[in-house]
Design goal:
Layout lengths: L3 H11 L8 E3 L1 H7 L2 E6 L10 H14 L5 E5 L3 H12 L3 E6 L5 H9 L3 E4 L4 H15 L2 E2 L5 H17 L5 E5 L4 H12 L5 E7 L4 H8 L22 H10 L2 E5 L1 H15 L5 H12 L8 E6 L6 H8 L8
Parallel strand pairs: 2-10, 3-4, 3-6, 4-5, 7-8, 7-10, 8-9
Antiparallel strand pairs: 1-2
């Protein structure tokens, strides 16, 4: 998808606005699972999530290719919106952000704090996305889709950092929403000519990506219900499917209860906060611990932006029920 030179250039651009995030081998976590477990801490990035990288590269590309654009419009469950609002407003552009009803209160507040104009529409991400695209076309705003080569090129820099720093990793667990994260990780692996397996992790309540690969065609689901809001997608993206259908070694499906347990494990073993999508890769590795015995695995902690009420409930042993 990208050459090594293209990812080198993306990394240099991203690192003008943020430092490379760390990857740590946590001994307590490794002891718990019986194998070496590296955690890529995208929760330490500005905005608290990996999406910030794609915002940097996309807005840089937009300013170079369409300097007359008045701004952008996009849809999100939160982390993508923070990324786009942050980068657009820094470039002096308008940022109109659509979210569904019942979206994370704290992510909404962060998007507004970064300068985004927040609009609530529809009952899920895909309905909000359709409206954002309609309004963008009417108002002459640049539409930022959930999947775009420049978003993926920026996001790929975390996998590029991880595999460059830890070349002996043999398996990486990555969550899937619309697919930029896993496709970026596949792109980084391929650019480095690495042999690591990339394991795609989906929510049991939002598994259109897994169903699509199993069917050999795009499969839309009627609902996408999970408190792991970054994975709550019911309409798969063809361009992403074309990459992960061949590039992912396998799919692992995790329940909300398993994700909640992984959040508790992260807090106990590393004292890091993980949102639902951020903990899903660890939940998948915990499910596959016997299969992975003796190997070197990495999990992408892709974000730590979890609402306080949900975190309180999880630490008390519960599993949040999305509205």
């Amino acid at each position: 998808m990208f050459t090594r030179q293209e990812l080198d250039e993306a990394s240099r651009l991203v690192h003008t606005q943020m430092a490379a995030t760390p990857q740590y081998l946590w001994p307590t976590l490794s002891q718990r699972l019986g194998l070496d477990v590296w955690v890529k801490h995208e929760n330490h990035a500005p905005t608290g999530a990996f999406k910030v990288r794609g915002g940097i590269t996309f807005i840089d590309w937009l300013r170079r290719t369409d300097p007359s654009s008045p701004g952008i419009v996009t849809a999100t469950r939160g982390n993508h919106g923070q990324s786009q609002a942050r980068a657009a407003r820094a470039a002096g552009l308008q940022a109109k952000i659509y979210v569904p009803r019942g979206n994370s209160v704290e992510k909404n507040a962060a998007m507004e704090a970064y300068g985004g104009t927040l609009i609530t529409f529809g009952d899920d991400f895909d309905t909000a996305r359709e409206e954002a695209f309609r309004i963008g076309a009417l108002e002459g705003l640049t539409i930022v889709p959930p999947f775009h080569p420049e978003l993926v090129r920026g996001v790929a820099t975390y996998g590029y950092e991880l595999l460059s720093a830890c070349p002996d990793i043999d398996t990486i667990y990555v969550p899937i929403g619309c697919g930029s994260g896993i496709c970026g990780t596949i792109a980084a692996r391929d650019a480095l000519n690495h042999k690591a397996e990339i394991v795609a992790v989906v929510s049991a309540g939002a598994d259109c990506a897994r169903q699509s690969v199993e069917a050999g065609r795009l499969v839309e689901t009627e609902t996408a219900v999970t408190f792991a809001d970054g994975m709550a997608v019911r309409v798969p993206v063809q361009a992403a499917y074309d990459i992960y259908a061949d590039g992912a070694a396998r799919f692992v499906t995790v329940s909300d209860a398993e994700i909640a347990e992984a959040i508790r494990v992260y807090f106990t073993d590393t004292h890091n906060l993980a949102e639902g999508a951020g903990a899903a890769p660890l939940a998948a590795l915990m499910q596959e611990r016997d299969r992975m015995a003796g190997r070197k695995a990495a999990v992408i902690l892709c974000g730590g932006n979890i609402d306080t009420g949900w975190m309180r409930e999880i630490l008390q042993g519960g599993t949040p029920q999305p509205s």
